[in-house]
């Protein structure tokens, strides 16, 4: 399960309780992405913390990174800025937006987003923020013909165009074309929808996306059953009270914790077969199933499982032949 980072979203105090006042439009030219930026004081503190780590120490001599990397808020802001807002991040399944009008929403760090399939069948993604007074526009998932802001009713098409701005007659120099939703770069690979907050201007080519996201591991994942033939069943959310890297550390410990923390699972695995392969930004752990009897008792194990970790925090568990968890 990819980590759901529970940090404060946009600061919109008591938005729904405020009474409508004078329309106060944001600068029509300010169509910059709304990702939080790193303050200069955060930058100084976090860079000092990062310098405590020596990447040249060989793995045999490596120790756990400093505790400040897990608890200092400025370091977390640095990670959002440098890690999560600059690469491809898997945010959902293609099956959630199979038909025109289907959409889902989510949050990555501080950024609220909405992904949809428009009337022409194109996959689109936008910052999920109204261009008027920054209300969150859509919530949950479902199917719609347009997005209507719950605050003052501005209405946007599935392609992001502003279709209707309520009660603005008399406003001078207001052009609806200047106030469409702000797009986010979106791409797809296999069963996944990916977003990239760092590619404002570049055109997206899905072939390059596979290379950038998975590198030389692309084919290995496809041939091991991580492909678009899989069906989307459900999404479950868990809030884990820890820094996101703690969860990743647990996933990447090569089965070290399994015999102690997951005794039942361990009894169904052949832990001697556990292996880890490293690629540019992907780690693949695999393990064969144990005895025939244990396999019968746990159909999630089957004859082999692969656990793929894609930097920075996306995890794919493929249990032959039936299950895929992310
Ligand atoms: S915040 Fe006013 S219409 Fe959306």
From TrEMBL:
Enzymatic class: oxidoreductase
The EC number(s) this enzyme carries: 1.14.15.7
Compartment(s) where it occurs, according to its Swiss-Prot or TrEMBL record: Plastid, Chloroplast stroma
Biological-process GO terms, alphabetical: glycine betaine biosynthetic process from choline
Pathway assignment: Amine and polyamine biosynthesis; betaine biosynthesis via choline pathway; betaine aldehyde from choline (monooxygenase route): step 1/1
Catalytic activity: choline + 2 reduced [2Fe-2S]-[ferredoxin] + O2 + 2 H(+) = betaine aldehyde hydrate + 2 oxidized [2Fe-2S]-[ferredoxin] + H2O
Main localization of the protein described in the UniProt heading: plastid
Cofactor(s) essential for the protein: [2Fe-2S] cluster; Fe cation
Stored SUPFAM superfamilies: Bet v1-like, ISP domain
A GO cellular component annotation in the UniProt record: chloroplast stroma
Keywords: 2Fe-2S, Iron, Iron-sulfur, Metal-binding, Monooxygenase, Oxidoreductase, Transit peptide
InterPro entries, A to Z: Rieske_2Fe-2S, Rieske_2Fe-2S_sf, Ring_hydroxy_dOase_asu_C_dom, Rng_hydr_dOase-A
Source taxon at top rank: Eukaryota
PROSITE patterns: RIESKE
Rieske domain segment(s): 88-195
Gene Ontology MF terms in the entry: 2 iron, 2 sulfur cluster binding; choline monooxygenase activity; iron ion binding
Biological function: Catalyzes the first step of the osmoprotectant glycine betaine synthesis.
Family label: Belongs to the choline monooxygenase family.
Protein name: Choline monooxygenase, chloroplastic
Organism: Medicago truncatula
């Amino acid at each position: 399960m990819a980590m759901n980072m529970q940090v404060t979203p946009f600061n919109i105090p008591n938005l729904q309780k405020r009474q409508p006042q004078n329309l106060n439009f944001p600068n029509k030219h300010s169509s910059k992405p709304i990702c939080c930026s790193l303050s200069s004081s955060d930058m100084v503190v976090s860079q000092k913390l990062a310098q405590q780590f020596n990447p040249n120490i060989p793995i045999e001599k490596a120790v756990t990174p400093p505790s400040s990397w897990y608890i200092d808020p400025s370091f977390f802001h640095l990670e959002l800025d440098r890690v999560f807002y600059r690469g491809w991040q898997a945010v959902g399944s293609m099956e959630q937006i199979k038909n025109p009008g289907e959409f889902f929403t989510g949050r990555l760090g501080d950024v609220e987003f909405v992904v949809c399939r428009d009337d022409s069948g194109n996959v689109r993604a936008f910052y999920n923020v109204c261009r008027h007074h920054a209300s969150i526009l859509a919530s949950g998932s479902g199917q719609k013909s347009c997005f209507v802001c719950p605050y003052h009713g501005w209405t946007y098409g599935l392609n992001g165009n502003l279709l209707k701005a309520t009660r603005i007659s008399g406003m001078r120099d207001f052009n609806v074309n200047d106030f469409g939703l702000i797009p986010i770069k979106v791409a797809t690979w296999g069963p996944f929808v990916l977003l990239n907050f760092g590619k404002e201007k570049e055109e997206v080519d899905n072939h390059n996306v596979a290379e950038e996201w998975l590198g030389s591991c692309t084919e290995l994942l496809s041939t091991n059953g991580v492909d678009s033939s899989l069906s989307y069943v459900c999404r479950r959310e868990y809030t884990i009270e820890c820094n996101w890297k703690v969860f990743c550390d647990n996933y990447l410990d090569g089965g070290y914790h399994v015999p102690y923390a997951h005794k039942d699972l361990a009894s169904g695995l052949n832990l001697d077969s556990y292996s880890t392969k490293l690629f540019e930004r992907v780690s693949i752990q695999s393990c064969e199933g144990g005895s025939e009897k244990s396999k019968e008792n746990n159909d999630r194990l089957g004859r082999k499982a692969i656990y793929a970790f894609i930097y920075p925090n996306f995890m794919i568990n493929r249990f032959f032949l039936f299950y895929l968890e992310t």
